Amino acid sequence: MSLQTLPAELIDHVAQCLHAKDFVSLSKINSYLYPVAQRWLYRQITIDYCSNNILVVFTLAQRPHLARYVRNFSIRLGSYSVLSSFYRLLRTALSNMSQIISLDMFLDHAASWVMHTRDDSTYHCLEHFASSFHIDHHLVHFLQKTNALLELEVDSLPPTNVIPSLGPNALPMLSQFTGSSQAAQYVVPGRPVESIHLNSGDLTEDVVESLAKSTAHVLLLAAATISHSVALIGTLTQCMNYLVHLRIVTTFNFSEPPDAVSTYPYYTYPFLYFSHHMSLQSYFINISNALRSLPDLRTCEIWGIHWFPVKNEFHDEGTVWRSEPFNRPDENHLDNHYSDFYFAT
Q: Which of 175, 219, 181, 215 shows the shortest CA–CA distance to 198?
């Protein structure tokens, strides 16, 4: 039986079990296996400081038919100094990757112009894109071509107010965003984003109201803030009442950590837990009441305190939100300041 009589699916199945270095040998066996080996050899490409395959960019720029085999491409050089001629070749290579599915571009911010690919290039298969670039007109030019994109990670907006509009029809399938609060306000409104990770910037009430303009229900929100305002939690629960997972950390320095007063059952007067800190009593009860307005919430961390829902066995009043203890006898993670907090809601 000759190789030509074997089904292409069978040959592909065998080829995917080989190591990358074996594809070079496979391509030399006969002319029938040569395109099979090439297809798998260029399918997934990773370039970083330690890799010795940086010359593959030259190949993909000069041989477009090979670039169309690329499905996953990742280059992570950070601020590593490379010649502008390399960036030009990289832009040409990207223009040729019409079938790419996942793309990671972590380069010097000043090299964002590599994303300004040829006008005739398209990326209808791209589902994941992450980069270290600011959202500038080069990146906007690229994102306008990614109508199948599901996951986006970008840096903040550039230090200028001259930013072109992304357009109402761009990113129609985007469901997950990671980036700064500024970039999130630029990208999320008007798109079906369900998962938001803010890795920089401040989460404010205005930001919450802006992100709530997603055309889908926001199910996951992770962010940082310099505030400790209960009003922020209230705004969040009003605007995103379908949240399933919530994590908000703060850089605010609490000068009066709650005392440990946990000798009474949690279904009695909650203020007995804060006999020396009545303001903190109201503070945490207000947060607990706000959490109650999120019926789908499953996991929650606010200001570094973990909350989880339990069934109220003493009153027929729905869910009881309980904070996770921080200073168990075998744990010592916050200088023994925090103890258990129980809230009947």
A: 181
